[in-house]
Amino acid sequence: MPMEPVAPMSLEEARAAEDADSRQLLSAATVEEALAVLVEIARRLTRAHQATVVLSPAPGKTRGASVTSLSHAYEVWGGYTVPSSDEPGRTSRERRASRAEPRGRLHGSLPGDAGVLYLFDREVGDFSREDELALHRLARLAGLALESARLLREEQHARAEAESAEQRAAFLADASRVLASSSLDPKATLDTLARLCVPILADWCFVDVMDEAGTVQRTSVAHADPGLDALAQRVRCFPAGPEGSSHPTSRVVRHAESLLVDDVDEAWLRRVAVSEAHYETMRAVGFHEILSVPLLARGRSLGALTFLAVRPSRHYNQADLETAQDLARRAALLVDNARLYREARRSVRLRDEFLAVASHELKTPLTPLQLRLQWLRRQTRKDRPYLPTPMVISQLDVVQRQVDKLSGLVHGLLDVSRLSSGRLVLHREDVDLEAVAREVKDQLAVPASQAGSPVSVSVRGDVHGHWDRARLEQVLTNLLANAVKYGAGHPVHIALRGEPERVVLRVEDTGIGIASEYQSHIFERFGRAVSERHYGGLGLGLYITRQIVEAHGGDIQVRSEPELGSRFEVTLPRHEAAANA
To answer: Model pTM greater than 0.90?
Structure first.
């Protein structure tokens, strides 16, 4: 089949065509457009069947861009086209024989090793010296066009980067205003912040916050489509998991490690899903990139701020990561300030409650003490030569008990003062913990009997160690006094168990127990799980107990259920070296 006929041109027409080609090539706005124009001009200029331009690979790439142009006749003939491998009714030999390999070839290098322009023709010797010269002129012109297009691309890229940076700065300024004008309710402010991020930074945005107990709650979820509210409720159900969880944001929350995944696929979703429901929820959202950054304040991770890209045109880069981290730092300050404010208010409330309780507790022994002293004074004013000894002794016993009670309260306050200032000093010696336990049992025999709570002691193994005897007596007294007070008239048991490197002390009762929501607070200063109106006390005993145990290098735990009693377990290293290890 003959080639497409080409009508001869006059010299003026040829120059006009060359000028038109030059203008078209030099006016190309992009590299891709310049390449497409180049191969069309090259094929037509030399009447070649195929023209191909191949650019040199960019740094870090293995292949460069490539564009090919074929003449209409060449496409009709099949030219270089290879039949499909699954074409029915043809053998491999027939398919190979049908391929037309080029026998005429001409190429020219683009300036600056930018690439190579190839021309192919079906007939040998079809290219002339004029074709070669025309190709080289075209290659030089193409170099100018590509350089211009590249410069334009760099300019456009720089302009886009500048606009993006300006948008990010404006967004951060808006976010700062939201955070600065917020109340000390972090939930409402984080909701506003998440909505502000959509759709500027993300198609989905959510906030996970870790509470004081280490549990993570998803406090805020925002999305771009109002019709996705039901899906947003499902997303709320899957906050970052516990330590070791495969959840994608668990390490962000618990180890303050930022996460950027730009190739989310089926395998990745399967790998990070914590359940089938979690996997189905992530698939329903349909994100292809995820960016998650920690909420950091005072060196602590408070949670995570997470962005999802759903639209194909949205992609995250290093600049987005830095913007997200900046935003997260500002949001973390809000969360931290709100927590500090709550803690300050709670401390003030506890202080006020303590002062009220302390006033009541200190006044309680003073009243009978004052009454006994007044009675003795009245008796001495009656000009009696003497008072019966038994009468005086009974009154003095009452006075002594009240003085002892006052002394105990004052010593408790002094201990808190020492602990707060770090001045608790241990005087270690070899101690038999069984002997201490039995002494404390004897000391509290009267109140235990009055409460109807008999105390028993059991020992297994060697329970000797190098401790502060007086302080351990204080620990046992506090634990046993609590067990008797809250034991509801049931027996109390002290169990001691010796292990190779430590001794375990356990005090158990079957009384009123402690609700789970109070168990994390009973070891705090002034913490209590019951009303001081019904049970009294300063709320210092367990706080002092914990401080003494930890000063010995040990630890104290409680297990309790309402109406089923409580079990306090103390673990003490036998030696000081173990405590300091």
So the answer is: no
